[in-house]
Amino acid sequence: MGNRSHGEASLLRPQQILFCRELGFRLREIGEILGRPGFNRMALRERTTRLEILLAAVDKILLHLKGTRTMGNEELLEGFNAARQEEHG
Q1: Has residue 1 got a pLDDT over 50?
Q2: What string of H, E and C letters represents the secondary structure of the chain?
Q3: Which of 14, 43, 79, 87 could crosslink 57 through cysteines, CB 3.0-4.6 Å?
Q4: Quick one: which of 69, 21, 73, 75 has its CA closest to 53?
Q5: CB within 8 A of 76, min separation 6: which ones?
Q6: Are the CB atoms for 51 and 60 separated by under 8 Å?
Q7: What gap in Å lies between CA 36 and CA 16, rounded to an integer?
């Protein structure tokens, strides 16, 4: 059982690096993120969830631009919360 734990531990860091790369982080950022004493693996999940929301919004917008779906102004900004909308004007 000790070997399994050691094996998993040796795979976790490379796996986390690969996940971060797929999420668009630069290697320097990844090193900083994973090196933080309070590193929270849930941050990766939160980023993934955020990207899924944005991708769904992009899909809707593409359908709107093709004319196969109509969207109101509020729906066009659906992927951004109020704080983000204010930040980006």
Answers
A1: no
A2: CHHHHHHHHHHHHHHHHHHHHHCCCCHHHHHHHHHCCCCCCHHHHHHHHHHHHHHHHHHHHHHHHHCCCCCCHHHHCCCCCHHHHHHHC
A3: 79
A4: 75
A5: 61, 64
A6: no
A7: 13
